[in-house]
Amino acid sequence: MQVAAETGRRAVKSWPALLVLPAYPLLLYVARLLTASVGFLGSILFSFVVAACWSSYLELISQAVTSSRFRLDWSELKRSFVAHLWDVVSVLFVFWIIGMLSAPLLTTSRGPAISAIIGFAIAFFFNAVPELLYQGNSRSFALLADSARFITEHPVVWLLPNVLLAALLLGSTGGFDVTHPVEILIAFGSIFSSPMGIIAVLMSFPLWAIPLVLVVLHTAMIFRGVLFRELASGGASARMRAFRGGMRD
Fold first, then answer.
1. Could you give the maximum distance between any two Cα atoms of the chain, in Å?
2. 95 close to 144: Cβ distance less than 8 angstroms
3. How many Å apart are CA 64 and CA 195, to the nearest integer?
4. Residue 27 domain boundaries
5. Which residue from 67, 86, 88, 90 puts its CA 20 to 30 A from 47's CA?
6. How many other C-beta atoms lie within 10 A of the C-beta of residue 33?
7. What is the pLDDT of residue 126?
8. Cβ-Cβ contacts under 8 Å for 66 (sequence gap 6 or more)
9. CA count, 13 A, side-chain hemisphere, 22
């Protein structure tokens, strides 16, 4: 309850960030148009634009989660695009290596099964990557290792509320197949771990609903940040131990 209450307070204080969110899809769309005809070099340039947009939003979330006040002006917005740029690039590079190494396996007869396993592993073990990018100190492969360590230490407390959020979003778009529950975890990993995942969710809603969805997604990212901070500091664990002790008494 404390995490939810703090999330609400911080979401209200950081409402100006909602005015910036629609700019990211527009920037990525223009960047895709400008780089599509340049081949491999265009893909690299587009990846840097993706990293810059993700850096910008992570900096806004960082202010919303870790600062006592939220400040957003033109100079701060420009700084946000480079605040975590190279950290994001390092993670994207690792994922590119993983994709390159796994590509030969996906062309075999077991390709679909292997793809599902890889997708599940990434969604599970690397789900805390966004929070580690602005609250952690590690980078590249070490950051992914820290994410896996964090998830294995707090699997239920972290994953359960996030999976419920993803199920709510997917259910409202009609994109959730209840015959394959494991798809919730994979989908929620793709939703909350990259700007392209968030954009894909936005595009599945009618235009009139997008402002409301932006509010929900922004609040969900703040919730993740607050929850991560509590779990990483041991605050949530201490309260859980106290609650269990009270129940025994």
1. 68
2. no
3. 18
4. 2-248
5. 67
6. 9
7. 86
8. 134, 135, 225, 229
9. 9
Position 131 scores a pLDDT of 92
Q: What pTM did the predictor assign?
A: 0.81
Measured CA distances, 191 to 75, 101, 141, 156, 237 (Å): 29, 24, 21, 19, 27
Number of domains in the chain: 1
Taking the chain (249 residues) in runs of 10, the rounded mean pLDDT of each run is: 87 88 86 87 90 92 87 88 92 85 81 77 85 89 92 90 74 54 52 57 70 83 93 65 43
